[in-house]
Each structure stands twice: as structure tokens, then as C-alpha cells.
């Protein structure tokens, strides 16, 4: 198995402006591989590496308002750090939002384009993840998701219950990938999705075939003739397997 989670992909109205927000939020560097694409990664990072899941922002026409099934959660090291980070994010243009979290110790926010994310209270589990604690995918059956994703990528299952599944790189570095049980199983077009890459990248076709054998389905989202392959997992979550270029 050679497939790795390498980045989270945001579709954005203004990739440059949204990229600047997230770069300042995370303390990461900004680069671009072409017009309409902004890449974020830790300063000095040698991509790809499991110590970080990077962010890729791609400019698209303004999509419809949808329920987000993929979001990120930010780690903090203390109550003071959490309060400082929330205040700084507000100054950068984020806004607090109510998604029914009630009196929770974490803060739910939306970035300047409305993408929902959370700033977590300090948790021992996330002490060494870097600024992104977890990439969270909402689902109706975490155990079913692990049956696919536990085989799909080179990550270890750290926790598995009826309510959530928690995976992390086999090297025990970087953020966690969490599948969280939610009551809504409607498949919608996501503005945020996961990007995978094989190592070596030349194994892309082999890895795509393996994923199809596990239950993934090729998906046409209007991507045209591109170097990556768009798939959907058995729950309908779209993701890409990157190629060279």
C-alpha cells in the first residue's frame, strides 16, 4: 500500500485571498502552481510528508450553499492559546457560527468564504499534530468508512467506535483523520475534499485500480483531461488521486 493523504482541497471564489487567511491562521507559507491555484504548507516543508496535511485552494465559480461534510479542526495548547487564536481569527475575517454545538468547549467558526471549522480546546491527543489537529469527515457509519479507508491509505486506526473512527499516519506524525457519526447521510457537492497521492507517483493507475476494488467509483465533476483521478468512496465522498503535474 502506497497511498497517502497529502492535502485538503478547498474550492474558493478567491483562492489568493482565502489562501492568505489560512496561511496567517496556520502560520504557513504561500505558493502557487499557476493562476487560480494557491498552495499552503509549513515553512521549510518538503512535500509530501506525513508530518503535515497541506491545503490547496482552487478558484471555481461560486457554488451553491451546501452542508459541509469535510472540515478541519485546529489544535491549541492552552486555554489562553485558544482564546488568543479565536481573537486573531476574528481579526483576519473569520466569524463564529452556530451549528448546534451548544455550550461546547470548542469554538465553531467560518472562514471568509463560509467554510466551517473548529478551534478546539487544548487536548492531550493533539499535542503534537501541528496547527491542524484533525481533518473531519461526517458520515453515518464510521465502522463502514474504516472498512474502506483503513485499506485505502497507509494510516493506522487509533480508535474505532460506533460514533467515530480515528486514523493517523503510521509514522505517528501530523493530524488525525476522523470519521464522525452524524444523522445526515445526504450526499452533496463538497467545497472541501481530500487529495491522495501514491508513492511513487507513477503508481497512480495501480492505486486507482486498487481503490476501485475496495469500492471506490470514478466520478465526473467536470474535471476534463487532468493528471488526477476523481473518485468517490462508498459513502459518496469525493476525493482525488493526484498524478504527476
From TrEMBL:
Gene3D superfamilies: 2,3-Dihydroxybiphenyl 1,2-Dioxygenase, domain 1
Protein name, as recorded: VOC family protein
Pfam families: Glyoxalase_6
UniProt cross-references to PANTHER family, sorted A to Z: CONSERVED PROTEIN, HYPOTHETICAL FUSION PROTEIN
Top-level taxon of origin: Bacteria
Domain Glyoxalase-like: residue ranges: 7-119, 134-242
Amino acid at each position: 500500500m502506497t497511498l497517502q493523504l497529502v492535502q485538503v482541497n478547498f474550492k474558493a471564489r478567491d483562492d489568493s485571498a482565502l489562501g492568505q487567511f489560512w496561511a496567517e491562521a496556520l502560520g504557513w507559507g504561500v505558493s502557487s502552481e499557476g493562476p487560480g491555484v494557491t498552495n499552503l504548507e509549513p515553512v521549510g516543508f518538503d512535500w509530501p510528508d506525513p508530518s503535515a496535511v497541506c491545503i490547496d485552494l482552487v478558484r471555481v465559480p461560486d457554488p451553491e450553499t451546501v452542508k459541509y461534510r469535510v472540515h478541519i479542526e485546529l489544535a491549541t495548547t492552552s486555554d489562553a492559546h485558544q482564546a488568543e487564536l479565536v481573537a486573531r481569527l476574528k481579526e483576519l475575517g473569520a466569524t463564529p457560527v452556530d451549528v448546534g454545538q451548544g455550550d461546547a468547549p470548542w469554538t465553531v467558526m467560518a472562514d471568509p468564504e463560509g467554510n466551517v471549522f473548529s478551534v478546539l480546546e487544548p487536548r492531550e491527543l493533539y499535542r503534537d499534530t501541528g496547527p491542524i489537529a484533525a481533518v473531519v469527515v461526517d458520515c453515518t457509519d464510521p465502522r463502514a468508512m474504516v472498512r474502506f479507508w483503513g485499506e485505502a491509505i497507509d494510516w493506522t486506526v487509533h480508535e474505532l467506535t460506533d460514533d467515530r473512527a480515528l486514523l493517523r499516519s503510521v509514522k505517528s506524525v501530523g493530524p488525525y483523520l476522523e470519521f464522525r457519526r452524524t444523522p445526515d447521510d445526504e450526499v452533496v457537492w463538497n467545497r472541501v475534499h481530500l487529495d491522495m497521492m501514491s508513492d511513487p507517483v507513477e503508481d497512480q493507475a495501480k492505486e486507482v485500480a486498487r481503490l476501485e476494488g475496495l469500492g471506490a467509483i470514478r466520478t465526473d465533476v467536470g474535471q476534463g483531461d487532468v493528471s488526477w483521478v476523481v473518485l468517490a468512496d462508498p459513502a459518496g465522498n469525493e476525493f482525488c488521486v493526484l498524478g504527476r503535474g
